[in-house]
Design goal:
The complex is a heterodimer. By secondary structure, chain A is of the alpha/beta class. Chain A has 2 domains: 32 residues; 140 residues, Glutaredoxin, CATH 3.40.30.10. Helix content of chain A is 40%, strand content 15%. Chain A is built from 4 helices and 7 strands. In chain A, the strands form 2 sheets. A 5-stranded mixed β-sheet of chain A has the order 5-4-3-6-7, covered by helices on one side. Chain A has a two-stranded antiparallel sheet with strand order 1-2. In chain A, helix 2 links the parallel strand 3 and strand 4. Chain A starts with a helix and ends in a 5-residue tail after the last helix. Chain B folds into 2 domains: 33 residues; 133 residues, Thiol:disulfide interchange protein DsbD, N-terminal domain (Immunoglobulin-like, Sandwich). Chain B is elongated, with a radius of gyration of 22 Å. Chain B starts with a helix and ends with a strand. The relative contact order of chain B is 0.22. The chains are: A alpha/beta, B alpha+beta. At the A-B interface, helix 1 and helix 2 of A face helix 1, strand 7, strand 8, strand 9 and strand 11 of B.
């Protein structure tokens, strides 16, 4: 009888522990939910530093710019090799990219200023939607958005499409904008991930042109 | 003697149950810890609920919780410029659950250092979307979608659509 009482007591103790574990688990989940709700109702902006978006690809600086052949908005094929002997700024951008929209007027001004001295800027739209070759509707949609952007921003330099196909060759192209500066010998002298300033772009252009080294 | 054996079985069974509960709690705390490897590759993470019970056939509000990777922002549902991609929640047809409507939080004002004059409407940190769901009777594993486009202060990631898995039980 005494042994049975002890066994029943132990059983009850274990069951009580089990109940406590369940209650503790429920409380933990409740607190986690309340914490998340509190965070949501007090959303605050977190200052970020340049380069927070993972850059992914390796820098091409010091290496020959990978050759490519892409189409422009009219369907003409344009190769990098056709600009042999010219300093270049290859600017990868996208229609949905705010920083690209900010720096495009700088590019237009820089082409006007340095074009007569030999610089050629090439814009390459990189929409990140990895369209298949046969997706006519998708390409038509992309082309219409790109053409609208080009017109609005008065982009007078060549604009090519399907930059996504160059992702592997150009270090990943994980984020836009990405600017690649190429000298007359076809070597990459600088690579800028993200927007910086017009002055920075001008300094890289001078370097590509062989000035101010 | 028989009673003792019976009680012994109860004790062993209880011990196994308590052990399982402890293991479950441990697993739960692991899944609620910061997911560094996921956050590195994914700008927005769906937090919870994993399962909801709703009255079948009746529009029922469900609050969905999301978290944006630190130092990134995504456009709100109503960005201020036409070319920016809005955040949109959707439920595919033939899920057994329909989205009657979705209520999004208001965006927070944000400016990029390169253009302090232009205000953007964005989400940062944790945010919620209130989805009004209408479920058929039964259990439905819904693969809802959230489309967004994320940036930091200098560059932008391509638009992305993530799956939002919710087990909806229509009673």
């Amino acid at each position: 009888m005494k042994r049975n009482t002890i066994v029943i007591g132990v059983t009850l103790l274990i069951l009580a522990t089990f109940a406590w574990a369940g209650w503790a688990n429920w409380m933990y989940r409740k607190q986690a939910a309340e914490h998340a709700l509190a965070s949501a109702s007090h959303a605050e902006l977190i200052p970020s530093a340049p380069g927070d978006v993972p850059s992914g690809g390796a820098s091409l600086t010091g290496k020959p710019a990978p050759d490519f052949t892409l189409e422009d908005l009219s369907g003409n094929k344009v190769s990098l090799s056709s600009y042999k002997g010219k300093p270049l700024l290859i600017n990868f951008w996208a229609t949905w990219c705010g920083p690209c929209k900010i720096e495009t007027p700088w590019l237009v001004e820089l082409q006007n200023e340095y074009g007569p001295k030999g610089l050629q800027i090439i814009g390459i739209s990189t929409e990140g939607d990895d369209l298949k070759a046969g997706d006519k509707e998708g390409w038509a949609h992309d082309k219409a958005a790109i053409a609208k952007f080009v017109k609005q921003e008065h982009m007078q330099y060549p604009v090519l499409i399907n930059g996504d196909s160059l992702a592997t060759a150009y270090g990943g192209l994980d984020a836009m904008p990405t600017s690649v500066y190429v000298d007359k010998e076809g070597k990459v002298v600088a690579m800028q991930l993200g927007i910086s300033s017009k002055d920075d772009m001008e300094a890289h252009i001078r370097k590509a042109m062989g000035e101010g080294q | 003697m028989i009673a003792q054996k019976y009680i012994s079985r109860i004790i062993v069974g209880s011990l196994i149950a308590v052990g399982s509960a402890a293991a479950f709690n441990q697993q739960d705390s692991l899944t609620n810890s910061p997911r560094q490897s996921v956050l590195k590759s994914q700008a927005v993470e769906y937090l919870y609920p994993e399962q909801v019970s709703v009255a079948a056939g009746k529009p029922t509000p469900v609050t969905l919780h999301f978290r944006i990777q630190q130092n990134l922002h995504i456009n709100s549902h109503t960005p201020r410029a036409e070319y920016l991609i809005p955040t949109v929640f959707s439920i595919p047809d033939s899920s057994g659950v329909k989205l009657a409507n979705a209520t999004y939080p208001a965006g927070t004002d944000f400016t990029l250092p390169a253009d302090p004059d232009q205000k953007l409407s964005v989400y940062t940190g944790d945010f919620t979307i209130q989805a009004k769901l209408v479920s058929n009777p039964g259990n439905h594993l819904v693969e809802a979608k959230l489309r967004y486009q994320a940036c930091d202060q200098t560059q932008c990631l391509p638009p992305k659509t993530i799956t939002v898995p919710i087990d909806v039980i229509g009673k």
